[in-house]
Design goal:
binds pyridoxal-5'-phosphate; PLP-binding_barrel; TIM Barrel; single chain; ten-stranded mixed β-sheet; eight-stranded parallel β-sheet
Length: 628
């Protein structure tokens, strides 16, 4: 637990059980419900679902929706805040139908709504968000059709709020609203001077891509008024970035946003809602700090700062407390899904050794490095040993290129070099102070565990923006992990790796894992992938979407769970179709080639049929490695 910090990033949902397996508590309030990951993996196997698999814990999703809403409700009551909370879930964070449907269903008692940022998301929200009391917030850039869809929502009696991101959108909205004679509900997104901290800080500040300046905001309000629609302006929106690492940014945004709301109100625009956007962060590395992958507050503190902050500004300004809206996506979805995959091999620089016994007439470089190894115990300056060994290896490579050293001699030098490095690493472990270069031995001697998945499909942000995601073995946690390793995926791309981990209280480039036992399935989990990662992946190397299992806990038996649904991942023909190939025609072409070989007598007819069937099976099969 100290090493992997499961309960620190687990948000009350994950911890290590006494049997060494990761356990899931899908409803933190009810600790009696526990799902053992080993049992889950066995069940997935029994169902015949191939790994890698996305596991969705629907109870976790429901729990997060309830937590956020009750947290706002309780804090509002405690603070004596006069307004309500009416949150919305931003579809873009995880657009999967099952995810959005579950959130809408769990949010029903709280009038929890949806946020859409594109036409496709708006079309989705129109069909799914059928609760007339909940909001549908429409952000993003909009065209004529977008506006008409929003107004269709109004006709259907729904609270569709068109948030104006740029001034020209307003002109379009007013024109279409007049033409259709439908009153829109209008929001304005303010460009904030306060910036978030962290990877997404560009969403705030004057150079932000979205939002209106203060002058544009006032112009918008007045334009609506001039067109007899002043009463339609109902919401002020701001969003200063996702994954806000420092709570101070939240406080500053609330006081700046609160002031804008108050002054608009005093100018005669009686807004009902203030929408504080997203940004509620997740503690990916378990450090509860302002690290990029963490945050120095929790959900409760965030909610308190929003509620009390807004109350303070409104009371000072003497304006009513508005209904509070937030657009938390990451906090709602991150914990609910994880990727479970298997380690399918190990790559080590020093994995192969050859016989290094002295041979007659061998090159002096081989002799030198052998002597260095033989005298290891007598050496007092280990930095010098490292320097000499490294120099011999480099010289040997040059000599090989100049055809002075044979391939066999080069292999001997490499073998001895790595043996010396292993001994140096053992020496380092006994020292209080280790020279800088020797510290890197941990990394250079680390194994690479080959994982059956694609970083580009399942953990895009680890590659794109160095986002840290927790990775842990799912079993054997009661055994000491003895192998330091990085994780590499099965794409043909050297960027397809994970080499940033939270280990103990530090961020390291290697992760301690267990030795692989022959014949054992060693599964690892990549956690907190429910926000963005689940849906942002690409098909690099034609690795497609993963098989998914949807898990619910059993009401009757706390130790039990059931796979409610299996959603098949992409087959090879699915991904080929997307890329404009015609798999049927391809199968036909390959069959013709096989037939030709049959006619030429190179393949027997029966064997030809087997090859044809095999090719077709591969087309309809999974894109990932098949493990036995
Ligand atoms: N609202 C808007 C306008 C956003 O751009 C985003 C994401 O950046 C969100 C909400 C969701 O933010 P988060 O996932 O941090 O809650």
């Amino acid at each position: 637990e100290k090493l992997y910090g499961v309960s620190r990033w687990g948000g009350g949902y994950f911890e290590i059980g006494e049997n060494g397996n990761v356990q899931v508590t899908p409803v933190p309030a009810d600790k009696s419900i526990r799902i053992d990951f080993k049992a889950l993996i066995d069940e997935i196997r029994e169902e015949g679902v191939q790994f890698p698999v996305v596991v969705r814990f629907h109870d976790v999703l429901r729990s997060q929706v309830a937590s956020l809403n009750t947290s706002f409700r309780d804090t509002i009551a405690e603070a004596g805040y006069q307004g309500e909370y009416q949150g919305v879930y931003p579809i873009k964070v995880n657009q999967m139908r099952e995810v959005v449907e579950e959130i809408v269903d769990a949010g029903e008692p709280f009038n929890y709504g949806l946020e859409a940022g594109s036409k496709a998301e708006l079309v989705t929200a129109l069909a799914l968000n059928i609760n007339e009391n909940s909001l549908t917030i429409l952000n993003g850039y909009k065209d004529d059709e977008f506006m008409r869809l929003a107004l269709l929502g109004r006709k259907l009696g729904r609270k569709m709020v068109v948030v104006v991101e740029k001034y020209t959108e307003l002109l379009l909205l007013v024109k279409i609203a007049k033409e259709l004679n439908i009153d829109p509900i209008v929001g304005v997104r303010a460009k904030m001077t306060v910036k978030g901290r962290g990877k997404w800080e560009g969403s705030g500040g004057e150079k932000a891509k979205f939002g209106l300046t203060i002058a544009e905001t006032i112009k918008t309000a007045r334009y609506l008024q001039e067109n007899g629609m002043g009463h339609c302006l109902k919401l002020l929106h701001f969003h200063i970035g996702s994954q806000l690492t420092d709570i101070r940014a939240v406080k500053e945004a609330i006081s700046e946003g609160g002031r804008i709301y108050a002054d608009l109100y005093k100018m005669g625009f009686e807004l009902d809602y203030v929408d504080v956007g997203g940004g509620l962060g997740i503690d990916y590395d378990g450090s509860a700090s302002t690290n990029d992958s963490s945050r120095n507050y929790n959900m409760q503190e965030y909610v308190a700062d929003v509620v009390y902050g807004m109350k303070e500004v409104c009371d000072l300004e003497g304006v009513p407390h508005p209904t509070l809206v937030s657009e938390s996506g990451r906090a709602i979805t991150a914990h609910h899904s994880c990727v479970v995959t298997e380690i399918v091999g190990e790559i080590r620089s020093n994995s192969a050794e050859i016989d290094t016994a002295a041979a007659s007439q061998e090159h002096v470089f081989v002799k030198n490095i052998r002597e260095l190894e033989d005298d290891f115990e007598q050496q007092t300056n280990m930095q010098e040993v490292f320097n000499d060994a490294s120099q011999y290896k480099e010289q040997a490579l040059d000599a090989f290129k100049l055809r002075v050293l044979s391939l066999e001699e080069l292999a001997k030098i490499e073998t001895i070099y790595w043996r010396i490095m292993v001994r140096l690493k053992q020496w380092c472990a006994t020292q209080d102070y280790v020279p800088e270069e020797l510290q890197e031995l941990d990394h250079s001697l680390a194994s690479q565990y080959l994982c059956n998945f694609s970083v580009f499909q399942s953990a895009a942000d680890t590659w794109a923006i160095d986002q840290l995601l927790p990775v842990v073995p799912l079993t054997r946690m009661n055994e000491k992990p003895e192998v330091n390793c990085t994780l590499v995926d099965i794409t043909c791309d050297s960027d397809g790796k994970i080499d940033q981990f939270a280990v103990g209280r530090e961020i390291t480039d290697v992760l301690p894992m267990h030795k692989l036992n022959a014949g054992e399935h060693y599964h690892v989990g990549l956690f907190l992938t429910g926000a963005y990662q689940d849906v942002m992946g690409d098909m690099h190397n034609l690795f497609g979407r993963l098989n998914e299992v949807h898990i619910y806990s059993h009401d009757d038996d706390p130790q039990d769970f059931y796979i409610e649904e299996v959603v098949k991942g992409s087959s090879v023909q699915d991904v080929l179709n997307i890329m404009q190939y015609n798999p049927r025609a391809m199968a036909y072409d390959v069959k013709k080639l096989i037939d030709k070989q049959i006619s030429a007598g190179n393949i027997m007819p029966r064997e030809g049929v087997r090859w044809t069937d095999f090719y077709e099976d591969c087309l309809s099969g999974y894109t990932y490695l098949k493990t036995s």
